[in-house]
């Protein structure tokens, strides 16, 4: 399936694809190492654009990267972003088209989302892509995210 | 006197109509959406802090048994003849067979946005608007069999693999438990691709759309799936001489699972009941 296949490296940034953008996996990964002070906030798009792009093949390793690691890509026409906050906070903040994607962690270290709740993925980025696969061009996350009850923390 | 839960493919026309009618009525009253909300709230993953009761835990089976009983009670307050039917996905494997007919749950969603457009739960009918949801869609969604990368429903032998395990559950009592009936039926595997879903989890994936997410209760097939899961617990008990729910005692303070799972005689939130009290349903209902 799409999310587990290796992604072809891309040399140039790909603009946000017109819908429907299926099936493209030419997403552009921008990997940033942020100062801890910036890490808890969503990263401004302008700062992301100024950084060098990296091949998609780096993506599967992002989840094990240092704190403050960010992924950002356009995948199937959707803008996926992820921020790993500074030490202590623990929780990834992942958005699709700037709307929060609630992420949960399994005991084996893999990740699942509220959209795709009955299997898990190796990294937050893989889980986010799977959520986009499932949303397709016609559905969107809620602006405020779903009701999640007790607010349990996701620990990375 | 105990009532009977039937195979959905055997329901008469009148039984189908009354089951659907009761569902639409509790939706109209606002009762149904509370079930959706509770399921979202109690989905706690095992890589997180906190007590897990509904998923990735030994109490997966009693939690959903009690959840079904609450739904069934709500339906029977509307129409006392109604019980929750079960969907035997090892027999009814087609996307057009029961329960996917226009007089029951309707069929798969349309390709563009997975919107269900047939049957009584189609949004255009005006009776089934989703209010508790993960996405901003107000219509029910499905993608039976997953069009873009088809998968098959779990088979009878997949179920047998779970049923033949004589132990209810084993340490570490979570989604990584390699042995035990509970996780084999719940269906958390390891690895990638389609081998990572089994039994219950795989059925959620096969139905797709709303059933894939945390708000899976929005699709009424949720109840038919969990009635069949519940039936497996009864079959497993009969086959192995009524083995008990495990763990019998709470994990000790030194255990990573201390305070995170429900032992046999502990309270099972959100209810004031225990797994022990939910092991035998024979005085309430039986399966035909």
From TrEMBL, chain A:
Residues 1-14 have a biased composition (Low complexity). Keywords: Copper, Signal. InterPro entries: GriE/MELC1_sf, MelC1, TAT_signal. Residues 1-22, 137-156 are annotated as: Disordered. It comes from the Bacteria. It holds the Pfam family MelC1. The keyword Metal-binding does not apply. Residues 147-156 have a biased composition (Gly residues). Belongs to the melC1 family. This is Tyrosinase.
From TrEMBL, chain B:
The keyword Oxidoreductase applies. InterPro entries: Di-copper_centre_dom_sf (IPR008922), Tyrosinase/Hemocyanin (IPR050316), Tyrosinase_Cu-bd (IPR002227). It holds the Pfam family Tyrosinase. Its EC number is 1.14.18.1. Keywords: Copper, Metal-binding, Oxidoreductase. Residues 55-72, 219-230 form the Tyrosinase copper-binding domain. GO terms for molecular function: tyrosinase activity. It comes from the Bacteria. The keyword Methyltransferase does not apply. It is an enzyme of class 1 (oxidoreductase). Its cofactor is Cu(2+). SUPFAM superfamilies: Di-copper centre-containing domain. Belongs to the tyrosinase family. This is Tyrosinase. The lineage of its organism: Bacteria, Bacillati, Actinomycetota, Actinomycetes, Kitasatosporales.
């Amino acid at each position: 399936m799409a999310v587990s296949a290796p992604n072809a490296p891309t040399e140039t940034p790909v603009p946000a694809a017109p819908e429907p953008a299926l099936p493209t996996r030419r997403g552009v990964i921008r990997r940033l190492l942020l100062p801890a002070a910036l890490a808890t906030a969503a990263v401004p798009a302008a700062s992301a654009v100024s950084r060098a792009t990296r091949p998609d093949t780096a993506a599967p390793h992002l989840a094990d990267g240092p704190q403050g690691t960010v992924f950002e890509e356009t995948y199937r026409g959707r803008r996926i972003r992820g921020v790993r906050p500074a030490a202590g906070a623990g929780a990834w903040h992942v958005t699709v088209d700037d709307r929060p994607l609630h992420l949960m962690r399994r005991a084996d270290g893999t990740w699942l989302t509220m959209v795709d709740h009955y299997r898990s993925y190796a990294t937050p980025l893989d889980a986010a892509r799977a959520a986009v696969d499932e949303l397709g061009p016609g559905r969107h996350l809620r602006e405020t995210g779903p009701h999640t009850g007790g607010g349990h923390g996701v620990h990375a | 006197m105990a009532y009977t839960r039937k195979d959905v493919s055997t329901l008469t026309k009148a039984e189908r109509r009354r089951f659907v009618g009761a569902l639409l009525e509790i939706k109209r009253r606002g009762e149904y959406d509370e079930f959706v909300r509770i399921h979202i709230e109690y989905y706690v993953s095992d890589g997180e802090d906190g007590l897990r009761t509904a998923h990735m835990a030994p109490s997966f089976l009693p939690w959903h048994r009690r959840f079904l009983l609450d739904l069934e009670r709500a339906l029977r307050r509307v129409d006392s003849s109604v019980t929750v039917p079960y969907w035997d996905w090892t027999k009814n494997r087609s996307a057009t067979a029961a329960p996917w007919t226009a007089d029951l749950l309707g069929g798969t969603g349309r390709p563009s946005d997975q919107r269900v457009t047939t049957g009584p739960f189609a949004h255009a009918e005006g009776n089934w608007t989703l209010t508790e949801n993960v996405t901003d869609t107000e219509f029910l969604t499905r993608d039976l069999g997953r069009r873009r990368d088809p998968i098959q429903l779990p088979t009878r032998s997949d179920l047998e693999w779970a049923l033949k395990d004589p132990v209810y559950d084993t340490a570490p009592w979570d989604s990584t438990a390699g042995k035990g009936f509970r996780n084999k039926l719940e269906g958390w595997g390891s690895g990638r691709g389609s081998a990572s879903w089994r039994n219950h989890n795989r059925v959620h994936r096969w139905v797709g759309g709303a059933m894939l997410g945390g708000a899976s209760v929005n699709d009424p097939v949720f109840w038919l799936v969990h009635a069949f899961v519940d039936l497996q617990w009864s079959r497993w008990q009969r086959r192995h001489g009524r083995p008990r729910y495990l763990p019998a005692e709470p994990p000790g303070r030194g255990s990573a699972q201390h305070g995170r799972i429900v032992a046999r005689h502990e309270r099972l939130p959100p209810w004031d009941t225990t797994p022990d009290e939910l092991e035998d349903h024979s005085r309430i209902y039986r399966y035909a």
